[in-house]
Amino acid sequence: MRAAAQALGYSPSAVSQQITQLQREARVPLMTRVGRGIEPTPEGIALSRRIDGTLAELNGLKEFLRTMRAGQTATLSIGHFASIGTTWVPDILSALTTSHPEVRIELFVADSYDPQRKPRPDLQLLVLPPETPAPKGYTKHLLTDDPFMVAVPSDHPLHEKSEVSLAALANDDWIDNDAAGGTCRQIVLDSCAALGFQPSFRLQTPDYGTALELVARGLGITILPLLAAQKIPAGAAILPIAWPSPIRSIYALVRSLGQESSAAELALRTTQHIARMGSLGNASQAASRE
Question: Does the pTM exceed 0.70?
Answer without folding.
Answer: no
